Amino acid sequence: MSRQKETKRGKRQEHTAEGMDLRYKDGKEVAKGGILGAFIGLAIIVPGVSGSAVAIIFRLYEKLLYALGGLFRRFKESARFLLPIVLGGLVGLVVGFFGVRALLNLLPFAIVALFAGLMLGAFPAVTDEIKGEKPTPVRILLFLLGLAFPLGLSALSIFGTPDMLSLEELSWYHYILFLLVGYAIAITQLVPGLSATALLMTFGCFTPLMNSVSLTYWRENPMVLLVYVCLVVGFVLGLLTVSNGLSRLLEKKRAPAFYTIAGLSLGSIVTMFFNPEIMEVYESWTLNAAMWRELGIGMALFAVGIIAAHFFVRYERNRVMKDQ
Fold first, then answer.
1. What is the extent of the structural domain holding 53?
2. H or E element in which residue 259 lies
3. Which of 27, 39, 219, 228 sits at a 20 to 30 Å CA gap from 294?
4. 190-220: b or e for each residue (b if 16 or more CB lie within 10 Å)?
């Protein structure tokens, strides 16, 4: 039997065996969990960044789904696995809001280009999951649909021109809507290629939520804290319920699922240069030295991101081959 077939069978056994091993092998894997969480936190801030795509790169995606879906069934093991990811997510959210957002205000195109380069350079890690699988017409269609979905969502957020949702003087049904929004955000974090930022922009609540994070705003409108609670509750419910469905889908229809995921992941990279925030940057550009300087920096960072991610993917491939 070839090494490729053995690898595929090993993947399937790891996924279907009861009692999946959720232990981190060493400190490096714990660090990966923290970095994965940081990208999940950043994904809520930076359009196009996909935390679950990073989970695939780190080969933690199926374990993440299993741990979330089995949190109550195997609480101790799942909690230990999820703890570094949760802590990393909190760090990523804070750093993303205060650090990356500040950098985006200074050099928006260049910073987006860096993240896009990282995602593109790591894309082969996603296609590794379908290597050796026959590209049937149905699978090709699923790939194309996956590619089109984030592009369509991004186009809707740009051209749909949704009214900005006010977070003041909300009615009771608005809080139910925010529960649903939180649930939808959870789906974007579990399905590679979907962007929480693009989703919030489509609903017209990304900018209001970003602007609401200040002590002054909280004092003037304390009920916004209930909005946060609804978002968090919906988010947690989404993680716990959707993860089970995705685990079963990967178990029964692994190849078609990853063809779709590959399309979603590639589409999300394109949307990093095609979303409401970056379109505002394009509209503000004039043919002057500042524009060409940012373009030059952006192209350089894009290349750096691709190269760095490429070497990391190669390192992960070699590590997996040694483990086998």
1. 3-323
2. helix 254-271
3. 39
4. bbbbbbbbbbbbbbbbbebbeebeeeeeeee
Contact at 8 Å (CB) between 116 and 272? yes
Distance from C-alpha of 244 to C-alpha of 242, rounded to nearest angstrom: 5
Report field, pTM of the whole predicted structure over 0.70: yes
Is there a contact between 200 and 150 (Cβ–Cβ < 8 Å)? no
In whole angstroms, what is the distance from residue 21 CA to residue 317 CA?
20
Q: Which of 54, 57, 51, 193 is nearest to 125 (CA)?
A: 57
For residue 41, what are the CA distances in angstroms to 114, 127, 166, 179, 202?
17, 24, 24, 19, 19
Q: What are the φ/ψ torsions at residue 70 (nearest 5 degrees)?
A: -105, 25
- Can you give the pLDDT of all 324 residues of the chain as single tens digits? 444 444 443 444 354 445 677 888 878 888 888 988 888 888 777 766 777 878 887 888 888 888 888 888 888 888 889 999 999 989 888 887 777 777 877 888 888 898 889 888 888 888 888 888 888 999 999 999 999 988 888 888 777 756 667 777 778 888 898 999 999 888 888 887 777 777 787 777 777 888 888 888 888 888 889 999 999 999 999 988 888 888 888 888 888 988 998 898 888 888 888 877 788 888 888 777 778 888 899 999 999 999 988 888 888 777 767 766
Q: Round to whole Å and give the CA distance between 53 and 76.
A: 26
Q: What residues contact 191, with CB distance under 8 A and at least 6 apart?
A: 52, 246, 261, 264
Please state the domain count of the chain. Answer: 1
Q: Which amino acid is at 87?
A: L
CA-based nearest residue to 45, from 1, 103, 5: 103
